[in-house]
DNA sequence: CCTTGACCTTCCAGTAGGTGGAAGGACTAT
DNA sequence: ATAGTCCTTCCACCTACTGGAAGGTCAAGG
């Protein structure tokens, strides 16, 4: 199977598929003309990778998941551990962004948004006293 | 003022300050020995940038904010517009991550996490029918 | 005067995960 | 023969830095 075909079937851009070969996630064989020749198993791997990436797993996690995917003796505990740690990272990121959102929302609400230069957003960004008491006490920012 | 001093006062690593000079966010003068010589205004700019970056504004947004910071004739509406569009992006990202979190949480909860290879997480990742009906209908993933 | 150590300089490379584009070979249809 | 599409490799670019090497500068101590 040619790369264009695999790209269409897996939903991954051909560029991405070549990149995945580059970093060793798939090893398609080559025809005499130099074209990559993908087996059905390669297609499955690539679709698997596409789904795993869409769930936000990193490339190295995908590599591990892929080896578990091909391991009939795997324990689901190994898979679950990876997913759990990924989930924890996602939730951590959500919390950070929510704190950010709250700060930004407050600033935006308080800003009149008119022709005057007075602006609470700018006031927040403006350094007031670099050596003394902080405007933003420790722990406010993430 | 030397870069080490500015780094300490602004809280930004010296590397980052040099980088900001590279991309034109600050233009410190040079001494005869080649050392950068930062004015107090440069220090203020850098502290401003540090705070803006900690609020998640991108470098190009920071560049615009910095020009507004130095513009006494600015209208707060311009500042607000930038903050609002940034806030919208943050909130968009939060929604994506929340959808992701929900999916992952569901998979993690349903996975026994034992020595058996049976695993709902793997089932989700495993491509079932590449040409036919999708396991994950359009719109499920972000 | 010399050395040590802290500080400064530039430049190159790498991070994550690709994406865009150029230059050129291969295949298919007319 | 040629046009058009597909394939190949390679190099550069994206964000926003960060690490490290090689080397110049400065202040203090012996």
Automatic annotation (TrEMBL), chains A, B:
Residues 80-107 form a coiled coil. It is found in: Cytoplasm. InterPro entries: CueR (IPR011789), DNA-bd_dom_put_sf (IPR009061), MerR-type_HTH_dom (IPR000551), MerR_fam (IPR047057), Tscrpt_reg_MerR_DNA-bd (IPR015358). Residues 1-68 form the HTH merR-type domain. Its main location: cytoplasm. Keywords: Coiled coil, Cytoplasm, DNA-binding, Transcription, Transcription regulation. GO terms for biological process: positive regulation of DNA-templated transcription. It comes from the Bacteria. GO terms for molecular function: copper ion binding; DNA binding; DNA-binding transcription factor activity. Pfam families: MerR, MerR-DNA-bind. GO terms for cellular component: cytoplasm. Transmembrane segments: none annotated. SMART domains: HTH_MERR (SM00422). This is Cu(I)-responsive transcriptional regulator. It comes from Sulfitobacter delicatus.
